[in-house]
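Notes from hallway chat w/ T.B., transcribed later so I don't forget. T.B. wanted the structure written out for a chain they're using in a teaching module, and asked if we could keep both sequence and structure tokens in one place. Agreed to drop them here.
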Amino acid sequence: MSRLFQVKQSNDEEFDVEGFEDAEDTHSSPSPPPPSIFSAAGDDVNNNVKTTDDDDDGSTSFASNRAYFVNKKTVIAAFSTVLVISVAVSVAVGLPINGAAGHNQEFQKSFAAALDGKAAKSSFCEPEPEQVLTCGQTFTDEKVVLSDDLFCTDEVGGAPTGVLKSLNAAIKIEGPDAVIDCKGHTISQRSSKNAAFCDKKIGTRDEREDMKTECDLFYVYGIWLVDGATAINCKVEHFYYGIQITDGGEVKKKKSEVSGNRVGVSIRDNSSSTTKISDLYAHDNYDGIIQSDPADGDLLIIEDVTSKNNIRRGMKVLASDITVKDSVFISNEDGIVISGEGDSADPTKVTFEGTVSSHGNIKNGITVQADDSDPVDYYAEVTVKGTLNTYLNGNYGIKVGDKIDMDFTVSDRGSFNSCENTRKDIFNIGNVDVVNDGTITCDSRGGASIADFPDCVDCPACD
């Protein structure tokens, strides 16, 4: 059962939250942002979330509904009286009995529907009042439907220390039966800064307080999905993490949108859970989609996603089982980053299905790399079952790093096409075992270990 919520702009309450640790971010600083972004970019930031002590903040809960009930026996008796009087009047004034009966039959149908809760309005019942939705609330195994935009106006200045040190969210949705349907409305918060350029860490309580103060961000998360919760048709702007998914969840339907956040969608799983992101537009964030610290057995499905104009990465994945289908990564610094795992028995596995394109990015279409600077090998398996295109990128179509040990398979119905990239279409300084049962297309190749890749079919000539 869903409830429609009337939106109230803000709430000073906070969440009872737990901290966690994200994967280390050790990449280089991004290229300068486009002129349309109004704030100067800072240096790269470690997006870690590592708690050194427990949060003990209070939590908010929503007031219970008031409902108005009608005694069915009383109403039926009243209706019977009305029916008798109506027939009598019809006879007295000479109306045909079937005409009066037809009128009363329609009236009876409407009345019965009202008793069954099927009629939107009835003269016998008062409407159920809308609930008021404010920023900072938690809903567990409920369906929340927004009636309007939710704009959080909570001020960092003067906020209690406990709030500033907490991992809090504008809306927290928890449980496998919990759903927030935004109906295309936007969830955002007021800030004097651009969240996409917030170069502060949030790992410890003190670091979170520093981040909120320096970046003027009262809430860390816009929507926080926990334990399989779902977000539908939502637009989320101006948070450190636009949508945070913890231990499984789903973002879907009608082009949900995340923009102007430090990270558009952040994924962290500890419980061998499944996360699905579909029909999403992630743009003008620092990073579009970031996955970190997955548990063994995690499933991540990315389908019908467009990640565009993000300052760093369109998407970075690190998990045991990832499927990317029918998606586009364009005009980011790096399109797709695949981080290898340190365990050869449990490598990062990425399967491309449908048509996936990573093109027009400042550096690379696809980068396969070690996730930190340890002098060990990192393992990955990449399988192309559909069509994978990397073209017109500023450096490489695909780059395989020096500490990567990777299996790269193109299935019999698959094709990998890397063309018109500025430096090389395929660049390999790692160790790659290639199985090509389909088609690999390229014009230029390089790197110390490029011999691992077989010869390509030439790219089609441009007219």
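Follow-up for T.B.: The CA atoms of residues 408 and 434 lie 5 Å apart. Might be a good example for the class.
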